[in-house]
Write a structure and sequence with these properties.
Elements (H helix, E strand, L loop, with lengths): L5 H13 L1 H13 L12 H8 L4 H9 L4 E6 L14 H11 L3 E7 L5 H4 L8 H16 L6 E5 L5 H10 L6 E4 L10 H12 L5 H11 L11 H11 L15 H16 L10 H4 L2 H14 L5 H11 L6 H8 L16 H6 L2 H11 L8 E2 L2 E2 L6 E6 L2 E6 L23 E6 L2 E6 L9 E9 L2 H9 L7 E5 L4 H4 L7 H10 L4 E5 L12 E6 L16 E5 L4 E5 L2 H6 L21 H6 L21
Parallel strand pairs: 1-2, 1-3, 3-4, 11-12, 12-13, 13-14
Antiparallel strand pairs: 5-6, 7-8, 9-10, 10-14, 11-15, 15-16
Helix pairs in contact: 5-12, 7-8, 8-15, 9-10, 9-21, 11-14
């Protein structure tokens, strides 16, 4: 077994030390819940009778007898997300597989799942980040009935997987497997779609052409095919050992996908206490697994949203990571994949080129992953260098591709696309933020230009439409943090800024908000902390101030006389009129008031034991 890379070991050791107290508290809690199986035996007769009253057939009698282990299914099925529509059929597949394996399964509960692709640029996007917290709480409600020996979590997209995982970790004594549904087949290429979006922004094509392009790209059930947060989630679940190996990118409604779903049910029964291989999720998600997750994201140019989500996930398991850890690992982890927006290929092309099995073997062989970890398929991460196939209707695993089948999409660690992971911690007089440069050309990674300050993305659009942005500038979009308005993604700004960049202008974005997991070719310093509403320095920037962005060196600075800068009073947040529609955002007011800083995951669930204010 290859020894861990020194930087990997160094970061892991400091995460372990930093987390020592909070992790001990977490493990004590979940270990105290062990040894009480089947858990339904602790219920009174009235409790138990309520718990199986809705069941039918032999499943009801099996649960009543307290002899068969019972799986709780938590699903994010709905028809608003193409990626989650396939989950309609999954409970029946899981229930039958559980029966065949001597167990039972119950649909424990559904969780909300909104589509950022639908809400982009609309007020609903202000609930997007906090939907993660709602999903976590929904997961806890589903599992809190104490009727289950194990759980299967069905989710794919942006906030859904982090929310499911945060909720599941509250029941860290339960064996839990995450069950994906896979990507849609490839449609209009992401590169061509991006070009049409830019043409629409400049008025070269009409809405009819744009809609036809979007419908050709997003055309069927399954995950969107670009490498945004949804597909980053799927990679993360495999690298952390929470999927069955090779499950992430198999298409929906195929024999292999259905067989993998059934196998997940059989496997989670095998890792219950009754199954003899007891593997609780709270011990799978440990410090090494979390560090492995960071590495997987960096090696593939994954979503910047995980500088929030993975931090929040780790904290749910008593583990403390920060952006210094991401930055330190990014300096040494090579970029092995080019998937849109980091390249022209989509996730289907990546999967065909060798996909997860090839990636995992390369990272393991180069010492960039901890192999000696617990996964849902046993001890050791090397199983994830295998890929699944069907034999006589059953899933079997064998060696994945030994060489990349397309070096333009996937490369070995010995010949990477770049020697580093392309994520940078940015710091200076404006605070701390992050930038993903794996899709940014080297010529655009250093920008020195005057600021144009906006309090909303609508303001940027209005300036673009008025012809006011045809110059060198840094768009400073403030009051977009979690405390201000829920930290919406500002992905709709990308085509506008890209138009000016393509004209030869020096252009960048600086914001305390988020960009999509599809952060692209325009340099964007995001998640700036502290945010403007917490008197962060971004609130002191004025239009015309000269900003300096050096993404290579991690510098974000402002050229203002120190005395003047010190004397400036931060701007006051704009107040929407009382007549403005809220479309449900008022229900999340308590979340906005409680949200921690971006570097603490923008979570509302409070500090860890022994930790102070996490703002």
């Amino acid at each position: 077994m290859t020894s861990p890379h020194p930087q990997l070991q160094k970061v892991t050791e400091r995460v372990i030390e930093r987390s020592r107290a909070s992790r001990a508290v977490y493990l004590a809690r979940i270990d105290a819940a062990q040894g009480h199986f089947p858990v339904r035996g602790a219920l009174s007769c009235a409790n138990l009778a309520h718990g199986f009253a809705g069941m039918q057939g032999d499943d009801k009698f099996a649960i009543k007898a307290l002899k068969a282990p019972n799986i709780g299914i938590v699903s994010s099925y709905n028809e608003m997300l193409s990626a989650h529509a396939p989950y309609l059929r999954y409970p029946d597949i899981i229930k039958q597989a559980a029966r065949d394996a001597g167990g039972t399964a119950q649909f424990a509960g559904g969780v909300p799942a909104m589509c950022d692709g639908v809400t982009q640029g609309n007020i609903g996007m202000e609930m997007s980040l906090f939907s993660r917290e709602a999903i976590a709480m929904g997961t806890a409600i589903a599992l809190t009935h104490n009727m289950f020996d194990a759980a299967l979590c069905l989710g794919i997209c942006d906030k859904i997987v982090p929310g499911l995982l945060i909720g599941a970790l509250q029941f860290g004594h339960l064996p839990t497997i995450f069950v994906p549904a896979g990507p849609m087949a490839s449609g209009l290429s992401n590169d061509e779609k991006a070009k049409i979006r830019q043409k629409f922004a400049t008025g070269e094509v009409g809405r009819d052409v744009l809609l036809e392009a979007e419908a050709s790209a997003y055309h069927a059930q399954g995950t969107c095919t670009f490498y945004g947060t949804a597909n980053s989630n799927q990679l993360l679940m495999e690298v952390m050992g929470l999927h069955l190996p090779g499950a992430a990118f198999v298409h929906p409604d195929t024999p292999l996908r259905d067989a993998l779903t059934a196998e997940a049910a059989r496997r989670v029964l095998a890792i219950t206490q009754e199954g003899g291989e007891y593997t609780p999720i709270g011990h799978v998600v440990d410090e090494r697994a979390v560090v492995n997750g960071i590495v997987g994201l960096l090696a593939t140019g994954g979503s910047t949203n995980h500088t929030l989500h993975l931090v929040a996930i780790a904290r749910a398991a008593g583990i403390v990571i920060d952006w210094d850890d991401f930055d330190a690992l990014s300096q040494v982890v090579p970029l092995l994949a080019r998937i849109y927006p980091n390249g022209k290929a989509d996730v289907n092309h990546y999967h065909a080129a060798g996909g997860m099995a090839f990636l995992m073997r390369e990272l393991l062989a180069a010492g960039f992953l901890h192999e000696d970890v617990t996964t849902v398929v046993g001890r050791g991460l090397s199983r994830y260098a295998e890929e699944p196939r069907l034999e006589a209707g059953q899933v079997v695993w064998g060696p994945g591709a030994e060489t990349s089948l397309d070096a333009a999409v996937l490369r070995p660690a010995s010949a990477p696309f770049a020697p580093d992971g392309g994520l940078r911690l940015m710091s200076g007089q404006l605070g701390r933020g992050v930038i993903k440069i794996s899709a940014v050309a080297a010529s655009h990674r250093k920008v020195r230009a005057p600021a144009i300050v906006f309090d909303s993305q609508e303001g940027v659009k209005a300036a673009f439409d008025a012809g006011e942005l045809d110059r060198d500038f840094v768009a400073v979009v403030r009051f977009q943090g979690a405390r201000a308005n829920g930290m919406p993604e500002l992905h709709q700004l990308t085509p506008l800024l890209a138009v000016m960049q393509d004209k030869g202008r020096q252009v960048a974005l600086v914001t305390d908000g988020r960009m999509s997991g599809a952060s692209g070719k325009v340099p964007a310093v995001i998640h700036l902390s502290p945010e403007a509403l917490l008197d962060g320095p971004i609130g002191k920037v004025r239009t015309g101030d000269m900003l300096v962005i050096d993404a290579e060196a991690g510098v974000l600075d402002i050229e203002v006389d120190p005395a003047e800068w010190a004397a400036r009073v931060p701007a006051t947040a704009p107040t929407p009129p009382l007549s403005a529609p809220t479309f449900g955002t008022d229900l999340f007011r308590v979340f906005r008031h409680a949200a921690a800083s971006a570097e603490h995951g923008a979570s509302v669930f409070g500090p860890l034991p022994g930790e102070g204010d996490a703002r």
